[in-house]
Known about the structure:
Layout: E1 2-7, H1 15-18, E2 23-26, H2 28-31, E3 41-44, H3 48-60, E4 65-70, H4 79-86, E5 91-94, H5 99-106, E6 115-118, H6 124-133, E7 136-140, H7 147-154, E8 159-164, E9 173-177, H8 179-183, E10 191-197, H9 236-246, E11 253-257, H10 263-270, E12 274-279, H11 282-294, E13 299-303, E14 318-321, H12 328-338, E15 342-347, H13 353-362, E16 365-372, E17 375-380, E18 384-389, E19 393-400, E20 404-405, E21 408-409
Parallel strand pairs: 1-4, 1-5, 2-3, 2-4, 6-7, 11-12, 11-14, 12-13, 14-15
Antiparallel strand pairs: 7-10, 8-9, 8-10, 15-19, 16-19, 17-18, 20-21
Amino acid sequence: MITVVGTGTGAPVPADVLTGAALVVGGRRHLDTVRLPGGAERIVLGPLAPALETIAEYVGKELPVVVLASGDPGFFGIVRVLAERFGTGLLDVRPGVSSVATAFARIGLPWDDAVVVSAHGRDLRTAVNVCRAHPKVAVLTGPGAGPAEIGAALGDGRVLVVASALGDPEHERVERVTPAEAAARDWGTAVSVVLCLDETRTPGGLRTVAGMPVQPDRWALDESDFAHRDSMITKFEVRALALARLGPRLGDLVWDVGAGSGSVAVECARLGAAVVAVEKSPDGVERIRANARAHGVDVRVVHGSAPDALAELDDPDAVFVGGGGRELPAVVGACARRARRTVVVALAALDRVPAARQALTGAGFTCDGVLLQSSRLAPLPGDVTRLAAANPVFLLWGVRAPATSEGVAH
C-alpha cells in the first residue's frame, strides 16, 4: 500500500500514518518536519523516475510506503503519476488543503470562479494568456515560471498576490504587488502560488460549474451588438467562419490586426482567448475599448499600423487580418511568420486575394479559402419579404503544418 499524505499548508502529518512505514518519500522540507520510524528508508524527491523505481521495489515486496506531498496531492500533484504507475487500488490518499484554497483564504476571496493553471514544468505562455483573459486566476509556479516571469510577461492592469511558504508559521508571506514590482524581485524558491486578479472585472452571480469561465451561449453576434462606423464591421456571417477557423480558446493569444470596431477581437475574448487588437485610427481604438467594456472582456488595444506595430507583441496562436490597402501582403506575411497555428484574412477587394494567398503559402502555411455571398431577409411594404444581398467577402486561411520529428508528425 502507498499512503499519500497532503501536508505543507499547516496540517501536521498524522503520527499513525508513518507507523510501520518501510519507505518515506517527499520533498526535503516535508521530510524534515516528521520523525521517521526506525529502519525506514528516506528518499528526497528530485527527479521522479528514480523515486518511482524505488517505490516499485518496496511495493513488489509488499512493504508499506508513505509519500509526503504539498497540499492536496490529487490536485496537479503526485497522485496522477502514482495512479498511472501502480493503479488506484494501491493508493490511500489523505488530502490536505491545497495551496490554491489556502492562498484565496488568506485574502478572503472565494475561488469557485477562479481558473487554476499550472506553470510548473510547463510552457509559461499558457498561464500568462489565461491571466490576460480571465479576471481571477491561480498560477501554480515552478522554476523559471515564478512571480518575476509572470509579472514581466503580463504588464499593467493586474494585481498579483504572491503566496510563499504557506502553512509555515515563521516564513509564510502573502503579498499584493503590481506586475512590475513582481518582475523586479528575486522571490526565491518558497513561492507556493501566484494569484492574478483583474479588480476592474469581478466575476459575479450564482455559479453552477466551478473554475472555467462560463462560455457564451452564442457567437457571431449581430452587428448591432457593437459600436461601429458606417457599417465598417466584419459581418456576422464572415465572423462566424472566421471564428471557426481561428479556434480561439482559453490559453491562446489571438491578434486582431486592422481591428476596426474590434468585433472579432471581442468575440475571441468571449470564447476565452487573450486578445490584442491592433488599430491605426484613434477613434477606432476608443471604439474597440468601448465594445470590450460593453461585453465584459479584456482586449489589449495597440494604437499603430501593421506590420510595424506587431514587432513588440508576443507571438500569437492565431491571427485575424481585416482591412486592406497596399500593405496587406506585408501585414499577412508578418503575421504568418509569427503565428503558431493559423492566420485568417478577410478581403473585399478581388485584386488582393492572390498576394494575400502568396504571403500565407510563402510563410509555409497550407492555404484555403472561400468566397462568402449571403442574402439576408429584409421586409418590403405589404408585409412581404425580400432577400437583400450583402457584399461578397473572400475569407482566406492558412494553417501551419504540425511540427515533425524524424519525419513523423506529432
